[in-house]
Design brief:
elongated, about 160 residues, mainly alpha
């Protein structure tokens, strides 16, 4: 009887949620979530400062820096939650982040006047030790591994 109630409660809580232990924010995913959280704070702080002090100097660069902050925040929350919808949101966020860091990285070398100061994604994240270039790749790889682990019944998948 208790087992039936547990299954029913699990179905109500999130039919699309992976089983416990398979969430994207568990195991090694905790480190990924922590790094994303640090980058969300760092990008928000840098963008806020640049926009409030020198927005006219480089409006495109500083606006893109603010976009990066939002992307990091969304990715952090989605990776931490780890349900089916959140995994989709995290995948979209990491993909947007990768496209952003590659596009802004190239643009910052081609048009140095538009990117007079370092931003999170300029110069491929060189001001942050190139972590912004590597982070979305790691995020997408983690999400892919998570997806494979949750598709195969009986696989270890980090449990």
């Amino acid at each position: 009887m208790s087992e039936r109630r547990d299954r029913a409660a699990g179905a109500r809580e999130g039919a699309g949620a992976p089983r416990a232990g398979r969430r994207t924010g568990s195991g090694p995913g905790r480190i990924l979530v922590a790094v994303y959280a640090v980058f969300a704070l760092a990008a928000t702080g840098r963008a806020s400062l640049q926009i409030s002090e020198d927005f006219a100097k480089a409006p495109l660069a500083y606006s893109l820096s603010a976009l990066a902050a939002v992307v990091y925040l969304v990715a952090t929350v989605a990776l931490a939650r780890g349900d089916r919808t959140s995994v989709r949101v995290a995948t979209a966020s990491c993909s947007l982040e990768l496209v952003g860091v590659l596009t802004v990285g190239i643009a910052s070398y081609l048009d140095r006047a538009a990117f007079p100061d370092k931003t999170v994604w300029s110069h491929f994240g060189s001001g942050y030790g190139y972590v912004p270039l590597v982070l979305p790749v790691l995020g997408l790889l983690w999400l892919r591994a998570h997806r494979r682990g949750s598709e195969a019944p009986g696989s270890s998948g980090g449990s």
